[in-house]
Amino acid sequence: MLIVGNGLLITLDADSKVIKDGAVVIEDGIIRETGDTANIKARYLNAEFIDAQGKVIMPGMINTHMHLYSTFARGMALKDPPPRTFVQILERLWWRLDKTLGPEDVYISSLVPIIDCIRFGVTTILDHHASPMSVPGSLDECAKAVEEAGIRACLAYEVSDRDGLEIRDQGIEENVRFIKRCREDKSPFLQGSFGLHAQITLSDDTLKKCKEAAEGLDVGFHVHVAEGPEDLEDSLKKSGKRVVERLDSFGILGPRTIACHCVHINEAEMEILKGRDVNVVHNPESNMGNAVGVAPVLEMMEKGVRVGLGTDGYTSDMFEAIKVANMLHKLNQKNPSAAWGEVPTMVFANNREIAKRIFGIKIGVLEPGASGDVITVDYDPWTPLTPDNFYSHILFGMSGGLVDTSIVAGRVLMRNRKLTTVDSERILARSRELA
Ligand SMILES: [Zn+2]
Predict the structure, then answer these.
(1) Taking the alpha carbons of 315, 55, 13, 406 in that order, is the dihedral positive or negative?
(2) d(Cα 16, Cα 35) in Å, to the nearest integer?
């Protein structure tokens, strides 16, 4: 049994409780209760106690769209002229990088951003993987990194036609194999979903095959949707349908499907996403950096579409994603009051709901019965932090670099900024060699 106490507890539960001198009790990986530290300490005399020393205690963050394999892109030189379009970014950067990855590259390039996740207080990720020259077993390499480091991850292999039918079929097989492995393992830390790149690299035949292969596996798909304008043009040319319509016609959309980006969609497509109860994931930094446009997430949310928040591998820091999402939509709407409610709903309520649909357990809230995924943040508010304003403290005052302790299911992965499960010096040195 573990108690994390003597801190300012932000529960993110239905009442948005803020408890001064608060504590959370974790037993067998699950939160047993939250409350006043003195009261809790007096009742659990034999529990291990982590003293937060007045820091903020809150649930671990969830990133609902990540690419662990993007590690070696940092500082990578391009051979071609700088990309001018989204497809050129794929061709000149990502599809060059992912073809170089062998098993050890996949393992190390997974561990590096997972170390970042732990340091930034991100305890759950939904990842989307590609290593076309080394497909079979690649999700096991990612999983090895996830299990060693101790975070929670849902993994998917991105099926695509771009490298030929043999590699496409390997991708389908890798998803099926890994999803079955997760079913057998029954680990609360690992899940699989069926990865698809994007409609732009998926033929009708491939989409049909993927839908058939996923039949009976009881999972959703994880797919990029209408990210760049080319995706929409290509879909219209190929099928006469818009992107969401085309994917829907193959049965790809459902309550456990992760539809990332959804930048170039119209109102009719929003209605489809809502009707299919799909999980849209917004990635503001990626969309801005790739200059693909601003996803109409505020309109989607107004219509009742569930929108979560991810990073698309641009960063591992969800505090950063919150800041960028907040500013992007205010600027885009030319309205300083925009997105005040929507961004916290994405990152807290909706990411939590998406994680629950994938992992089948309550994650991202400090309340009895939820998973014991807890972080402490070295933040001392200089104005009162209350149930009404804690979001503005998170937005303006906190960042991933202030996270001090990260805990997943009661297991301490970092304490006082020191990692406990992985040797980051050795891993980063190996990463530099492989890169
Ligand atoms: Zn992505």
Answers:
(1) positive
(2) 13
Q: CATH fold of 2-60+364-419, please?
A: Urease, subunit C; domain 1 (2.30.40)
Q: What's the gap in Å between 19 CA and the centre of ligand 1?
A: 37
The reply to whether domains 2-60+364-419 and 61-355 share a CATH topology is no
Give the Å distance between the CA of 131 and the centre of ligand 1.
14
pLDDT (tens digit per residue) in 241-278: 999 999 999 999 999 999 999 999 999 999 999 999 99
Span from the CA of 69 to the centroid of ligand 1 (angstroms): 11
Relative orientation angle of helices 318-333 and 390-397, to the nearest 10 degrees:
100
pTM metric for this prediction: 0.98
Q: Give the integer Cα–Cα distance in Å for 113 and 71.
A: 7
d(CA 201, ligand 1 centre) in Å: 14
430 C-alpha to center of ligand 1: Å? 25
The SS3 of residue 274 is: helix
Distance 311 CA to ligand 1 centre (A): 8
